[in-house]
Every structure is written in structure tokens, then in C-alpha cells.
Input
Amino acid sequence: MANKQSRLNANKYQAMIVCENKESIQLEIHLAYVSLEEAITKIKIANKTKESAHENLKIANNKYKEVLSSIIEVTEAQTFFWQNAVISQLYSIRVTIIIV
Output
């Protein structure tokens, strides 16, 4: 009888561990999904910012060609554009890492 009770307790313990592992895995999956959604949102924002920076750069170049602005404005627009291009790529890399 004691042996049967020991096996029953062992089975209950195993079932409890399986349940805890399942819950832990579900939590990890949920956290990964949330992290992926967050990264995708950041990519969308970074891409829109990059598009805006590109448009700003075109405007700055056109104004410079028409002698309506200085080279400093063009340089600032270039810097802003390239900073945002790099940020956009970094977010894309982060999503790739999350998926892998």
C-alpha cells in the first residue's frame, strides 16, 4: 500500500512539474510575441521617420540649389536621414533575431 501511495505521489509530482513547465513555456511564448509586436511597431515608426527625413533632405538639397539655404541645413538633413536609416536597420535586425 505504501509503495502504491509513493507511486501515486510521484505521478502527482510529475503532473505538477509538467503543468508548471507548460505554463512557463506559454509565458515565454507570450513574452516573445509581445516583444515581436513591439519591435514591428518600432520598425514602422522608424521607417516613417526615415521617409520624413528623406523628404526633408530633398527639400534641403533643392533649397540649397536655389541658394535659399546654407550647406549647414543640407548637412543637418543628411545627418538626420542617415541616423534614422541606421535606426530602422537596427530594428529590422532585432526582429530577425527575435524570430530566430
In short: The helical segments are 2-65, 71-99.
